[in-house]
């Protein structure tokens, strides 16, 4: 009896109540089989399949009309091509020529001026939105008048301001009492075009802020009024923090609009006088359409895309960090 107990303790064949036995390992397993892993349920698989089917058309469209043109433009920028004959590979020659051309730096400087002055549109749009965000008689008609510039074509806006700046019969000449060649002077051409572009851009920012003002938390505004907040203190500490997503969207759209400015320059000055008002987008068009330098124009487009990409990635990171 003693020998049998010792043999059991040595061999480890303990009973169900002893540690290390069958109770420790759980239910008995069939030899040669692995534990089962539960996969996604049929409902989850159907949801994934439905989501993929809904996203597939948009992904295909983005791949065809966005991703492929970007990659094709980058590839063309390494070639010398006039759009008709066979392209010849030149490597980085287009970029070397671009960075040694004075017109490129003039266009880059004008893009920076556009960027700085165009950022006046969000605060101007906010001011107009605060003025229009009141319940008075006839305010809808006033809103329609302020919104009208946004629905106008860029060509129409350019023609209106070209007549406005005309030194012989323009409204500006009547106001000042003498004609000023705004679009014919290299010092005034770029600011004059930017002033024209601010008209519809301010209307767009106004619409964004009007939408944001309708979504304000009324309880916070009322509590701030009970605490004695009014005027600038109400705007700075209560209204603007709630309008932060709207401000972010307005700034992003305004910066992108400043970097891709083209239509007003084409209508009002054509990049002149003496290429003083050209920007990267118009310089790219000018080289491709007028001089048939498709490869060189593609290199300008790649540089402009790189500038916009840096800005967009920076703001996307800020947005993701704020959400986290």
UniProtKB/TrEMBL annotation:
<keyword id="KW-1003">Cell membrane</keyword>
<dbReference type="InterPro" id="IPR035906">
    <property type="entry name" value="MetI-like_sf"/>
</dbReference>
<keyword id="KW-0472">Membrane</keyword>
<dbReference type="InterPro" id="IPR000515">
    <property type="entry name" value="MetI-like"/>
</dbReference>
<dbReference type="GO" id="GO:0005886">
    <property type="term" value="C:plasma membrane"/>
</dbReference>
<feature type="compositionally biased region" description="Basic residues">
    <location>
        <begin position="35"/>
        <end position="44"/>
    </location>
</feature>
<feature type="compositionally biased region" description="Polar residues">
    <location>
        <begin position="1"/>
        <end position="12"/>
    </location>
</feature>
<dbReference type="GO" id="GO:0055085">
    <property type="term" value="P:transmembrane transport"/>
</dbReference>
<feature type="region of interest" description="Disordered">
    <location>
        <begin position="1"/>
        <end position="44"/>
    </location>
</feature>
<feature type="transmembrane region" description="Helical">
    <location>
        <begin position="294"/>
        <end position="314"/>
    </location>
</feature>
<keyword id="KW-0812">Transmembrane</keyword>
<keyword id="KW-1133">Transmembrane helix</keyword>
<feature type="transmembrane region" description="Helical">
    <location>
        <begin position="248"/>
        <end position="274"/>
    </location>
</feature>
<keyword id="KW-0813">Transport</keyword>
<feature type="transmembrane region" description="Helical">
    <location>
        <begin position="50"/>
        <end position="71"/>
    </location>
</feature>
<feature type="transmembrane region" description="Helical">
    <location>
        <begin position="144"/>
        <end position="165"/>
    </location>
</feature>
<feature type="domain" description="ABC transmembrane type-1">
    <location>
        <begin position="107"/>
        <end position="313"/>
    </location>
</feature>
<dbReference type="InterPro" id="IPR051393">
    <property type="entry name" value="ABC_transporter_permease"/>
</dbReference>
<feature type="transmembrane region" description="Helical">
    <location>
        <begin position="112"/>
        <end position="132"/>
    </location>
</feature>
<dbReference type="Pfam" id="PF00528">
    <property type="entry name" value="BPD_transp_1"/>
</dbReference>
<comment type="similarity">
    <text>Belongs to the binding-protein-dependent transport system permease family.</text>
</comment>
<feature type="transmembrane region" description="Helical">
    <location>
        <begin position="193"/>
        <end position="216"/>
    </location>
</feature>
<protein>
    <submittedName>
        <fullName>Carbohydrate ABC transporter membrane protein 1, CUT1 family</fullName>
    </submittedName>
</protein>
